[in-house]
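WARN  no MSA supplied for this record, continuing single-sequence
INFO  ligand: 2'-monophosphoadenosine-5'-diphosphate
INFO  echoing inputs
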Amino acid sequence: MSDRYALIGNPVAHSKSPSIHAEFARATGQDLEYGLVEAPLDGFAATVERFRAGGGKGLNVTLPFKQEAFRLCARVSERARHAQAVKTLVLETGFGDNTDGIGLVRDLSQNLNYRFRTVLLLGAGGAAQGVVGALLEAGATKVVIANRTVSRAEELAQRFPGVSACSYESLPEEAFDLIVNATSAGLGDETPPVPSSFLSSKVLAYDMVYGRETPFLAAARRAGARTSDGLGMLVEQAAEAFFVWRGVRPETRPVLAKLRGS
Ligand code: ATR
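INFO  complex generated
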């Protein structure tokens, strides 16, 4: 029988993860299957345990369970500890990792070929938490976190030396190389209120939401900024999870090109 893996979340129905991992498995000759597990909102731990007891080897965790997964792990990686959120579970050992940050940074550096020093990160929820450490490790000299609820941005910023927090009304009057939308605003067809003066042709505006142009990306495009959705991040973080589980690093470019239909 093939080794079993899955994405666990609520909802999970429209995820591209199964087709990404199926491509990785085919390309690397790994014998595994990757499915979808929808856990009830109050039944994450029990659902994980059922999957493990049934022979499941690993899980990728998505909304809204990443923080709960962190609390469930016997041991976590340094990057998961920084994020206080777990994205990838190795069920045999109870090990948890967070591959979001490396996924974003690899997409920026390898797929988009974009160099940056200064970053404005929008949002302070699970998605934002996963990437601050990796942005700093990738060489960001300045990271400012803006959030609707400023206290959440402050709580996240204080975990990382040199990172600062603010509200959308008190953004510093300076240009950033990279603006990352890590809010869930785009899912509801809304946009975080970033003044268009921040969105110039010298900026890459990146939205972690994938598969469509969010209002944030549309505003950035209209202002002349370079834009990207989060599809590359999804594929890159999946490749890192695959590596954590199988010790083999799949090539991401062909999979990304196929998903983009090019
Ligand atoms: P996730 O794991 O996707 O980050 P989350 O932890 O619920 O989900 O966080 C959602 C983030 O999107 C938060 O930063 C939230 O701001 P608040 O902390 O102030 O709630 C942000 N967000 C959601 N909808 C938004 C909107 N319409 N405008 C601005 N920010 C929004």
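Residues 63, 123-128, 147-149, 152, 183-185, 190, 192 surround 2'-monophosphoadenosine-5'-diphosphate (CB under 6 Å).
INFO  checksum written, moving to next record
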